[in-house]
Design goal:
By secondary structure, this protein is α+β, with helices and mostly antiparallel strands. It contains four helices and 16 strands. The chain has a six-stranded antiparallel β-barrel. Bound molecules: zinc ion (ZN).
Length: 246
Amino acid sequence: MATELLYREDAYAREAAARVLAAGPEGVLLDRTPFYAQAGGQPGDAGWLRWPKGDGVGEMAVARAVKGPDDTVLHLAAEGAALPPVGAEVTAALDWGLRHRHMRMHTALHLLCSLIPGAGVTGGQIGADRSRLDFDLAAPPARDWLTGQLNALVAADHAVGERWIAEEELDANPGLVRTLSVQPPRGAGRVRLVRIGPEEAPVDLQPCGGTHVRRTAEIGRLEVTKLENKGKQNRRVYLVLAEGAA
Ligand SMILES: [Zn+2]
């Protein structure tokens, strides 16, 4: 049975009640979860599962959430952590500070993508401290120009929205897909489109299954720290959240 993905409806859900369906060395399976499972360059969430135990509370630290078989999410226990009993009602709570940095970084990478139009994205990795995107590109823009443009897009405080479209609509508009290395998440004939900026003139519009902030001002100040040559046509752009931006 597929895990109900609560972050798909509300990326700001920090905790939720859920039931334990299975628990073992391969991870803890819940019927529903706010945890994002590692995919598409965004790390899996960390946090805690808590449940009533005797007169107190049982707790399992979640080191990371990963994808399990059949559209499930597995919550991996931190080393030495006791597992909750099968059938228990738990509160699944995120390490929100970490997740929120991932959301800011992830949304920032969409903005970076919008500043390098026409170049395919060949790879990427989101981190709490530093993120990167790889572009299929011969001549990249200057580092300072990118930093300035990114901060202008942040300051413009664009809204971030989403809608689901039919797979046929995406297939008819292949230009929407920027990532050459990651296929957009599909399921039940639908694909999730994430849009930054107004519907009539979006700053960025592409299929994405990750978690984003609601408005670009929430990202805070950004800095492009480095551009690296990774082969003749491959340019790697590194991005950090500037200090004090939270
Ligand atoms: Zn995204």
